[in-house]
Write a structure and sequence with these properties.
The structure holds two protein chains of two kinds. Helices cover 71% and strands 1% of the residues of chain A. By secondary structure, chain A is mainly α. The termini of chain A are far apart. The chains are: A mainly alpha, B alpha+beta.
Chain lengths: 384, 403
């Protein structure tokens, strides 16, 4: 009989075995492999801090340190559970009278991670009211202001950071604003100099600056220095999901999709990265599987009421499902929350793909007025 | 010759696409902490399955006793008492606003796409209340981002809610006019067959080729009106007799197969019928020989060329499917016979209407190439793919099909 019918009958027989809540047969039946978060050193620190915090609830510095470790893990592993834990650890300190400044800053980081930018700004306001020279708070503030395209506010924050005494931080701050408002060439030069002159800064800070530099070079249409900056940044922080995603996008844009799979191989749990893997995937079954995995992740988040990853959802709809109008709706909703170049790009591409030329033109107008330079959007660099 | 072979290949491709929809993959994604709470309201009480991710329980209670990076059943079972106590404190039920006590009945395990979950099964028997409340505070001080997705199933349907930020929810079990009269149940039967897309799909799969016969060069039209009519009536009567029989058996509690099995078998029956419509025909002159004519291949061919037998055989299973619906409606304290007759009559009536609509159209079109080579196989493939999706959805416990 034909293969098709044989397959159908066999499949029917096999699939009649139901799978629902069950009682495992043996004690040794493996339920879940607990993938350890972070390095062994971090895990050790985490364990001892958890114990300390449980034993000494009045120990502020232990609690704050624990929250900081969790936030670091949340970012490095792209794992939102750590944000929840960090918030829980910090919450009792914020409820007390005279909370430590750091508590505000840490909770603002958690809120920033959940894209609750209003809440994050409120926490930063409280932190800066208590400690007006807190560098971390100003830097976080500047980042959020850039994300929300409040460039006046960002310039003011950058000016405050100039007085901080930390050259790398001050330069990065100024460069971030300049790169989005018409002076990407100057921004790139500033960054290159500052990174070169501060070899002893923390790897995290250097990597952040190099990632910013790579982004500026990419938007200026200078792939060779961009790649060099990406590579330098990856040398410092090889497992930073944000950086890896940005580099994967660079590879996809420059026709080097084949390198994306190997680059992101070790990150099956990070949906944002699997999105890039799916885009680069040429094998249709592999792609279909990844697409389904991503879809179930999106559905779960939607069921929970989380709307954190609208940019990725829009991109999923546009590039993987070919659903331009769905992508446009998501991109527009995303635009209300954040306005980084990547958000502008998905909005513009969705508008174009769904044939809404008017919307596409309006977006470009806004970006031109802002001074954004991005060759991917046809906004060629004006600065030299 | 080629044509009869390409259809199955396309069916396979379509099936693969359907299967991909629910494939469980090995790597689990980093999601925020999410649990599930499945509550079932029935006449004799409530049952609840509280699902918590093994990962979250490990964060809470440190399940990995031997520290080998894997959590095994023995390690979870060993902490059953303390975890069940924790769940009992954090998940509370109310009936008409008054707290009620739930009894823990078992600890199980469930695998979902996001990972492995511990299932804390609880029962609250003898609840007659129509207003059920749930208060949920699992992991509250440890992870304010934890949410649970609540599914509340009652005879009128499924409701959903999200708890976590919102600490409690109440569900009102819908009251319905039970219609203890014959006419009431007749209407229910009608309604059920007209919204019973799986039953209709099965009938469609059987009736599509009823105006045709297998000829030397493929499907050919049946000559006379009488022949076609007799065939159609034969199929429908056999189906009716079979499902009436098993419906009665189920209602009188003689045979009650589990509903998940019944639903899956119904899907399989549609698949069988659809497959029979598009299988390669029996060997004719010059046709290439089948590669491996196995016994079950012959059996399949034998059976699928006898639609009356197929209708009867699988009709038996469909009857159990109807019984599931009837029992959920609650037959009331009075006799079972009248509701049963009424419901059955409703199903027959609904079926008859569908056949009366289908038959003239199919009869008139039966000679056309469009019907023989296009609509009949095409609709069969469509029905078969749908059946495959139902099968995976029901057998796999996903229950995500919208109908």
């Amino acid at each position: 009989m034909s293969f098709g019918c044989r397959f159908l009958l066999l499949a029917s027989l096999v699939l009649s075995l139901a799978a629902q809540p069950f009682m495992p047969q043996g004690d040794g039946h493996v339920l879940e492999a607990v993938k350890a978060s972070g390095t062994a050193a971090i895990r050790k620190e985490l364990r001892s801090l958890e114990r300390l915090v449980a034993a000494e609830p009045r120990n502020a510095s232990a609690a704050l340190r624990l929250a900081k470790v969790h936030i670091g893990l949340a970012r490095d592993e792209a794992d939102p559970r750590h944000f929840g834990r960090a918030e829980a650890v910090v919450a009792p300190w914020l409820a007390a009278t005279n909370p430590p400044t750091e508590a505000w800053v840490l909770r603002s980081a958690v809120r920033q991670g959940s894209h609750d930018f209003d809440g994050a700004m409120a926490d930063l306001d409280a932190a800066l009211a208590a400690e007006p020279t807190h560098v971390g708070a100003w830097l976080a503030r500047l980042t959020i202001q850039c994300v929300r395209s409040d460039f006046e506010g960002a310039r003011r924050s950058a000016a405050r950071l100039l007085r901080s005494g930390d050259e790398l931080v001050a330069t990065a701050a100024a460069a971030q604003v300049a790169s989005l408002t018409g002076n990407s060439a100057g921004a790139a030069r500033m960054l290159e100099t500052a990174v070169g002159r501060n070899p002893s800064a923390t790897p995290g800070m250097r990597s952040w600056c190099l990632a910013l530099l790579a982004d500026i070079r990419t938007r200026r249409g200078e792939p060779v220095p961009a790649e060099s900056a990406f590579r330098d940044a990856l040398d410092l922080t090889p497992r930073d999901p944000q950086l890896l995603g940005a580099y994967a996008d660079f590879l996809l844009d420059h026709g080097r999709g084949a390198e994306v799979g190997p680059l992101l191989e070790g990150f099956p749990q990070v949906d944002a990265l699997q999105l890039r893997v799916a885009e680069a995937e040429t094998d249709p079954t592999g792609r279909a599987r990844t697409v389904e995995r991503l879809r179930s992740g999106i559905e779960l988040n939607r069921a929970r009421g989380d709307r954190v990853h609208l940019r990725e959802e829009a991109r999923f709809h546009l590039r993987l499902l070919g659903d331009a109008s769905g992508a446009l709706a998501l991109a527009q909703e995303n635009w209300k929350v954040q306005r980084e170049p990547a958000d502008a790009r998905i909005l513009f591409e969705s508008a174009q793909a769904s044939g809404d030329a008017e919307a596409a033109r309006r977006i470009l107008e806004t970006l031109r007025a802002q001074g954004l330079e991005d060759v991917a959007l046809g906004l060629t660099p004006r600065s030299r | 010759m080629k044509r009869t072979r390409t259809w199955p290949a396309r069916v396979v491709a379509l099936m693969m696409a359907c299967l991909c929809r629910w494939l469980v993959v090995s790597a689990t994604a980093h999601t925020a902490s999410t649990g599930h709470l499945e509550v079932r309201w029935a006449e004799d009480g409530l049952t609840a399955d509280i699902l918590l991710a093994i990962r979250d329980l490990d964060d809470l209670a440190g399940l990995d006793g031997d520290g080998d990076g894997e959590i095994v059943w023995g390690e979870l079972k060993g902490r059953e008492a303390e975890l069940t106590r924790y769940v009992a404190e954090r998940v509370r039920f109310t009936a008409d606003g008054q707290p009620v006590r739930a009894t823990a009945t078992s600890l199980l395990v469930d695998r979902r796409t996001e990972g492995c979950f511990a299932v804390f099964r609880q029962a609250i028997p003898g609840i007659r209340s129509q207003r059920i409340g749930i208060e949920y505070s699992v992991f509250r001080e440890r992870d304010p981002l934890h949410r649970t997705l609540v599914r509340f199933t009652e005879p009128n349907g499924v409701r959903t809610a999200v708890l976590g930020v919102v600490p409690a929810v109440e569900f009102e079990v819908g009251t319905r006019d039970r219609g203890s009269t014959f006419v009431g149940f007749l209407k229910e039967g009608l309604h059920h067959i007209w919204t019973g897309y799986d039953h209709l799909a099965f009938l469609l799969a059987l009736l599509l080729p009823a105006v045709l016969r297998r000829g030397d060069t493929g499907w050919e039209a049946v000559e006379g009106f009488r022949t076609a009519l007799v065939r159609i009536l034969g199929i429908v009567t056999a189906f009716t007799a079979a499902h009436s029989l098993t419906l009665a058996l189920a209602v009188f509690d003689v045979v009650r197969p589990p509903s998940r099995w019944v639903e899956s078998a119904i899907a399989a029956s549609i698949l069988f019928a659809a497959a029979g419509n598009i299988r390669g025909r029996t060997r004719a002159e010059g046709a290439p020989a089948p590669v491996n004519p196995a016994g079950w291949s012959r059996g399949f061919r034998w059976l699928s060329s006898r639609p009356v037998a197929v209708a009867f055989l699988f009709g038996l299973i469909h009857g159990f499917g109807f019984a599931g619906v009837l029992s959920e409606m609650g037959l009331g304290a009075g006799g079972v016979l009248l509701p049963l007759l009424g419901f059955n009559a409703g199903v027959e009536l609904g079926q008859m209407v569908c056949v009366l609509v289908f038959f003239p159209v199919a009869f008139l079109l039966r000679g056309s190439t469009l019907y023989r080579r296009g609509l009949m196989p095409g609709l069969s493939v469509a029905v078969g793919s749908l059946a495959f999706a139902w099968l995976v959805d029901r057998a796999g416990g996903f229950d995500r099909m919208p109908f």
